[in-house]
Amino acid sequence: MSEVFQWAREENLQPEPITVEIWKKLPEEFCRLVEVENGQAVRAESPIRQHQTAQRRLAEMLDAAVAAYIDQYHGDCLDLNTDFDVLLWEMPRTTIRRPDVAVFDCAPDELRPLPASLVKLAIEILSPGTENVDLVVKKAEYARAGIPWYWIVTLGDNRVQMIEIYVLDHVLEQYRPFRKLVPEEQPAVVELPMEITIDWSRLSVLTR
C-alpha cells in the first residue's frame, strides 16, 4: 500500500485526477475501498452485516435466473458479480462505481473496469450513510451511463422490506418507476430483464 500513500498526499489531496490508466495501476486493495467520482477518489463505506447477507442472497437468486436464461437462449451470454468496478464514463473526468450486484454481458476478466455499456442491471442496497448517494447520485449516474435497469433495495427490521425497480427512459436519460416489490408478494417473479424469482423467505432473517 506504500505506493498509494506516495500517490495520495498527506493533506488528502490528489496530485491529479484519477484516469482509467491510473486506476489500473493502483493496488486492488485500494480500489476495493474507494469509488471514483469525476476523477476524485471517494471512500466506499463498509457495509453492515445485514447488507452483506442481503447482497449475497440476492446475488444467488439472480445467478439462478442468469443460468436459466443462458440455458434458454444459447446465443446470449450473461454474467453476474458483486462489488466490482464499472466504468460509467471517462470524459470529462472518470467515474467508476461498484454496484452491490450487477448483471452484464459476458466479458473477458481482464476488461477492468467493466464498461457500463455491458451492464444490464445494477442493484444498490441502502445502508446507513449511503441513502442519498444510492437514491440520488448513483441513480442519476447509472441513467446517464445508459444502464437499462436499476434496483434499489431497502432494509429494515432485519429483513429486506422493499425492492424498487426502475427502467431507463432512453430519451430523457432518466429512470422511471417500473414496479415495487414487497414481502407480501410471495414469491415475486420479475420478468425483466430476465425471469427472476424473489424468494422473500430468504430475505426475511438477515442476521441471527
From TrEMBL:
<dbReference type="Pfam" id="PF05685">
    <property type="entry name" value="Uma2"/>
</dbReference>
<dbReference type="InterPro" id="IPR011335">
    <property type="entry name" value="Restrct_endonuc-II-like"/>
</dbReference>
<protein>
    <recommendedName>
        <fullName>Putative restriction endonuclease domain-containing protein</fullName>
    </recommendedName>
</protein>
<feature type="domain" description="Putative restriction endonuclease">
    <location>
        <begin position="35"/>
        <end position="191"/>
    </location>
</feature>
<dbReference type="InterPro" id="IPR012296">
    <property type="entry name" value="Nuclease_put_TT1808"/>
</dbReference>
<dbReference type="InterPro" id="IPR008538">
    <property type="entry name" value="Uma2"/>
</dbReference>
